[in-house]
Amino acid sequence: MLDIIEKLTQAFGVSGNEANVRSIIQDEITDKVDEIKVDTLGNLIAIKKGKGNSFKKVMLVAHMDEIGVIATYIDKEGFIRFSNVGGVSPYCSLGQRVAFQNGTMGRIFYERKLESLKDLKLEKMYIDIGAVNKEEAEKIVSIGDTACFCGGFELQNGMVTSKALDDRIGCAILIDVINHFPETENEIYFVFTVQEELGLRGAKTAAFSILPDFALSIDTTDTGDTPECKAMEVKCGNGPAIKIIDKSIICHPEVRKGLQKAADTIGVRVQYEVLEYGGNDAGAIHTTAGGIPSGTLSVPTRYLHSSIETISLKDAEETASIVRELIKGSGLH
Amino acid sequence: MDSIQYNALEQHKEERNAIEILKQLTEISGVSGDEDRVQEYVCQLIKEYTDNIEIDSMGNIIAFKKGINSKFKVMLSAHMDEVGLIITGYKDKLLKFKSVGGIDERILLNKRVSVGDSKIPGVIGAKPIHLQKKAERTKPIGIDSMFIDIGAEDKKELERLVPRGTFVAFDSKMVEFGEGCIKAKALDDRVGCAILMDMIRYKFDFDLYCCFTVQEEVGLRGSAITTYRVEPDIAIVVEGTTCSDVAGVEEQFHTTKLKGGAALSFMDRTTVYDKELLDFIKNVAESNNIKYQLKKTVSGGNDSGRIQRSLEGVRVATISIPCRYIHSPVSVMSKEDFFSSRELVRAVLNEINNKGGVNYA
Amino acid sequence: MDIIKLLEQLSMQNGVSGFEKQLSEFIASEFRQHCDEVQVDHFYNVIGLKRGYSTNPKKIMITAHYDEIGLIVTSIDEQGFVKFSNIGGIDSKILMAQEVIVHGSEELFGIIGAKPPHLLDESQAGIAVKLEDMCIDLGMSVESVKAKISIGDTITFKAYPTELKNSLYSSKSLDNRSGVLTLIMILEQLKGINHRDDVYIIATVQEEVGLRGAEMVAYSTKPDLAIVIDVCYGDTPEVSEDEAFSLGKGVALGVGPNLHKGYTNKAKQLAEELGIGIHIDVNPASTGTEAWAVQISRTGIPTVLFSNPLRYMHTMVETLSIKDIKATARLSVELIKAGVIN
Known about the structure:
Helix content of chain A: 25-40%
Oligomer: heterotrimer
Number of helices of chain B: 9
CATH superfamily of the largest domain in chain B: Zn peptidases
Number of domains of chain A: 2
Strand content of chain A: 25-35%
Number of helices of chain A: 9
CATH class of the largest domain in chain A: Alpha Beta
Structural class of chain A: alpha+beta
Number of strands of chain B: 17
Largest interface: B-C, 63 and 63 residues
């Protein structure tokens, strides 16, 4: 699983520009599924067909996109002004390297005359690509190009650190489920979505086209286990988190129960997640077409939306195990 | 049934009875200056145990139990009044009010209240969050922006039903919950009243005066005159006191601890307590195995300040029952603390009786 | 039907948004007494059908949400105090010294406490108490608390229904159990009426967290006309009378881009003819009600909004007039009777 996590997280895939990530996933799974397609928005949908005639349709979701920045203006000296794509903190951006899709590297810094860092805003920051003037800069970067943060991959003490673990770890988990696919009658839709970071956009249309019996999103969630952070009970390394609520969804009780039962069956310890902000793909799915029971299994992640997102590898592996167990079952109702 | 079982059963019955009396006491409306109904209730229950009951001009009850040799006088004091509200005017169909006694304004929003003698139900309302401007949302709502709503059609109806100056008490029924806890309004100081009502049943060598005072919450008013009437040698105030052992409060600020036993004061805003009397009480608690704690901060105050500095000075002590969220409709007390305080008061009286006074050695 | 008793029952039941399962059974059983068909969907929307006489009936959908705002357990501290977050919009200022029920493995009574005022430092003066600085006191040891509740358990206000003067009624969750009561009253009145169209009476879920139940049922029901029944602001000091309406004077009829002009006018006309009191509730954009979600379902659904004026919205002493509920029920029935859909 580790190799694929590295490959996926290090790939470029800012929201709206997920092609690189999509092709890595396609290479990985095309031979192992019964059907695979890319829909209008760019979601990748892979299907393992159901057996018999009373199977359930289960939709498993992870998003391919990552947060990043987008060039909005290039000044005379060749410095690039930018805006955010998804939730980008000015503080986490400061002093970071970014990479455009064509490989161009940039460094983010701020207007030095700013008196207090408290007033730091993305408008007061720029990307330096080392161009000497506007013309030279425009040869390699155009207005509207997106760039992702650079954040190398490393494994230390069982913890994986990289950029874009949100939500390539979810993608890696789904791939792992395909690679070690359990015996099941159910029809499983593996959906790798686009533009989650811009408002759960890809998941909405995918859900409408599939109309599953239930849906499960695999995503990252915040933790409360770092010094003087906002209080939250979820800890990195304490097991996958069954989401109860966030701003986009109150997870369906039957999906939560199903996850709990699957975890109990295989003896994996889980945590409960009450997230007071943020949303995830399940939010867009559950109100679709009259309502689709949906839930989320989260991988606890430190430093979300930064270049050093950090998870416990064990949490990720156990997440995959619970998903495998869940889809074996005869459904939820 | 053996005698131990029998005693346990009797004790249980007696304790249930005490809690039932406390329930009735706390559910009576008796805001400072409007204690009549509490006074009536107390008199009615203690009548048969006392030698004389006197009601003074302010409404204090001085209940007297003659001693066998009457060598000296012990006064127990607890106040009948509670914090509450008073109607000051009208705003369209609603009532304007001010608080009587110290109330944290933050706790008034959206509480149910009982207006006047006829206990008209009402609710305290204010602008809902949706209609508050952004700057208003993060600010507390002041008492001037809150109103009591009894469902009146117009001002005329209000003037008829609720004249200005009508007293308003919180509407809060006693609830037993958690592990031996009680929620009620007015635990400060009906809990003290309940203990005094129990003490008056006993007969000692000395003369016992149980004073149920008025207007403590608006400046220790009633006890100023009871002390002059009784001229006690020793006075013990029985109070509901603050208990701040709640989340977000550092341990050094925990005035008292819930379930920590009867609380003894060494100093508060009104009184530096008699050191020898305090030591005497501590010894009694220890030798009788009664759970007690020292009140850790010097905040708050009670009738003892008045009593101590009346006449030529009176030796005074306070035995308190810890109450979380005091001065609110949802004060919380533990039954265990109530019973240890009651037991301690009784044991102190017994010891004074046995020693023929307070043994200061 | 004993209206007060039913309202009391409805308001005392608990069903925080997303946790409505238990309450759905109560509402379904009420609906069953009057409907030809009742079903509860995957999300616990309760859908009752009262058939019309026509062989080719149109569909009228009437929704009222039955979820309530509430709190949710986020952690338990080392002393056993329970920290919480909100579900739905709650003014943290109203929570101090309130009584709540925590729905753990059993129902537990608790008090919301905060740092006492004399221990607040100067910097806190003039700042409203924040949600994160409050906690629930269950009067139990930390061990007992942990054994009985877990992260994600919901918390509701303790209900103390109270009748005030002049048919006013105060309790928790009248937003929008009063709407559910209105639905049941409509059903009862429809019994004696020969109506042409099929009427779908629907008690919806998850309104307080984003009109989610309404979005689902509008899609699955596919009505020709929708009537949304909810509450609006009752007259309150310091609030303009344009946006907050006197209690006891009738139905607040929503107007604005969110609502269908033709049917709204028809309702207004009916009210005037029949002497049903109305207020005009002007909404320049979203009404903040389910009408916002219903209007744009599928190919679009003509939607009208009837509201019961309510004082002290989203508190434990929400206050409204029984008279208004009756007026709202009556106007809805008259609109159904009129067979207005072409």
